[in-house]
Amino acid sequence: MPFLVAAVVLIGLVAAVNLLLTLGVIRRLNEPSNDPHPGTTRPGGPGTELPPGSRAEMFTARTIDGEQVSDADVRGLVGFFSAHCEPCHTLAPLFADQARTMARGEVLAVVAGEDADLIATLAPVARVVTEDFDGAVQAAFHNTWTPAVYLLGDDRRVVAGGGRMSDLPSEARA
């Protein structure tokens, strides 16, 4: 009988500790975030697979205007967006504002899925490619997350990348 009582007490203690840990995790998940763009990536996070100094792999793709683009002529600002991504819809106007300060040939926007609003925001200032997440441009940048932005130098190497425009150098956003 004493063994049975000890086993019940031990199981009760383990259950109580488990309950306390679970409540702590739930409380932590419910805390408000100071991140002004929740759900977006951080520099070097899952959305920006190419680190500074690297190059995108070889690719060719067609824009919505029928223009062919390839890794050989991509430099400047590159952005990845998704139709069902709320942070993408928040980032797109900021991306377009930056793109207006650059030549259209220096800006490439890749939209996963069909989204008329995203395309309408980006098309006047960027070459826009629509493709799935396994498309040529997404694969060339090893991109698995949206939104993601890259700044490429004249040598087509990544200067910076991230999930927000603020992840790029300030001179690129001026």
What does this structure look like?
This protein is of the alpha/beta class and 174 residues long. It folds into two domains: 1-31; 60-173, Glutaredoxin (3-Layer(aba) Sandwich). It is built from five helices and seven strands; from the N terminus they run αβββαβαβαββα. The protein has helices at 2-30, 86-99, 116-122, 136-140, 170-173; strands at residues 60-62, 68-70, 76-82, 107-112, 127-130, 148-152, 158-162. The strands form two sheets. It has a five-stranded mixed beta sheet, covered by helices on one side. β6 (148-152) and β7 form a beta hairpin. It is elongated and about 80 Å long.
Blueprint (SSEs and pairs):
Elements: H1 2-30, E1 60-62, E2 68-70, E3 76-82, H2 86-99, E4 107-112, H3 116-122, E5 127-130, H4 136-140, E6 148-152, E7 158-162, H5 170-173
Parallel strand pairs: 3-4, 4-5
Antiparallel strand pairs: 1-2, 3-6, 6-7
Helix pairs in contact: 2-3
How would you classify the helix and strand content by structural class? alpha/beta
Assess the beta-strand content as a share of residues: 15-25%
CATH domain fold name of the largest domain: Glutaredoxin
What is the CATH architecture annotation of the largest domain? 3-Layer(aba) Sandwich
Give the helix level as a range of percent: 25-40%
Give the neighbour order of strands across the main sheet: 5-4-3-6-7
Number of spatially distinct domains: 2
Secondary-structure element pattern, one letter each: HEEEHEHEHEEH
Name of the CATH superfamily of the largest domain: Glutaredoxin
- For the secondary structure, the number of strands is 7
